[in-house]
Specification:
This protein is an alpha+beta fold. It has 3 helices and 15 strands. Strands 2-3-5-6-7-8-9-10-11-12-13-14 form a 12-stranded antiparallel barrel.
Length: about 280
């Protein structure tokens, strides 16, 4: 039974990857007219992953719980920084993760000090192979209206949810990372009607030297959507990080990051720090 389930997982994963890349290449109108069918398909394809998570893990993979509060001078994400969505003030962003075996579940939250940016984001990540992972995250971001909106509203036009599917591939012997993400549920309408399926592709490169770390990435959106007013490269990032350790066992990375969006012609410099507390 386990062998059959593993085979099904591999076959269904191939189908999922093929369908997503096909949408990138063709962006067919048929896909938009059948958004509900796509959503059901994604859920069905994810069933074997979630059922596998319920199986008993071997003792060598104990549950790990980490609490990671972060302070940043400005929230910046996929080319979006200062503005009506993320505000223009520092932000506090705590995150808690539960990791066991190939699975990671967690909750990310964030709020800016000017009361404009407020978000809560549950997520689940499955490590298919050491190099390849798939994930779903529900970005609930109503901003200052956080306590006055309906958290169960997933309407295409009125929702404050942006449910994002993404997959990541990290090369084993080279510090290069590829990412593809698509919003498939929640707010993301096209002006002419239907769902836009806003997408984002990213190539990242990172190096480490002793306690120093440097990361750079180039991100692009293949068509007009939530990230930019037109297709193109919408994110250029460079990040330098110093990995400090407190009391010999508490990681305390401090970083400086610059980001620039060539589409909107807006840039930002962000400084921040994270405290990684291992609860279990």
């Amino acid at each position: 039974m386990t062998g059959l389930r593993n085979t099904l997982q591999k076959d269904m994963l191939k189908i999922l990857i093929t369908s997503l890349w096909a949408s990138l290449i063709t962006k067919s109108t048929r896909l938009y007219r059948h958004e509900k069918a796509m959503f059901i398909l994604v859920l069905l394809l994810m069933i074997p992953f979630f059922t596998h998570a319920l199986e008993v893990e071997e003792p060598k993979n104990p549950l790990k719980i980490t609490l990671s509060p972060t302070y940043v001078t400005q929230h910046y994400w996929r080319g979006i920084g200062r503005g009506k969505l993320f505000g223009e003030a520092p932000a506090f962003e705590p995150q808690i993760t539960f990791a066991k075996g190939k699975w990671m579940f967690g909750l990310f939250a964030g709020a800016s000090f000017d009361n404009i940016y407020k978000t809560a984001m549950p997520f689940v990540i499955y490590q298919v192979t050491p190099e390849f992972s798939v994930a779903v995250q529900d970005i609930y971001s109503p901003g200052a209206k956080f306590w006055d909106t309906n958290p169960f509203d997933f309407n295409l036009k009125s929702s404050y949810h942006f449910v994002d599917y993404y997959m990541t591939y990290r090369f084993r012997n080279f510090p290069l990372q590829l990412k593809w993400a698509t919003v498939f549920l929640g707010k993301d309408p096209k002006p002419e009607g239907g769902r836009n399926f806003t997408s984002y592709a990213e190539i990242g490169y990172g190096v480490k030297y002793k306690k120093w770390q440097a990361d750079a990435c180039i991100g692009a959106t293949p068509w007009k959507g939530l990230y930019a007013t037109k297709a193109g490269i919408n994110n250029l990032e460079l990040k330098v990080q110093r990995n400090f350790v407190i009391n010999q066992n508490v990681p305390f990375p401090v970083f400086l990051k610059s980001g620039y969006n060539p589409v909107s012609e807006k840039g930002v410099i962000v400084a921040g720090a994270t405290l990684n507390l291992k609860i279990k």
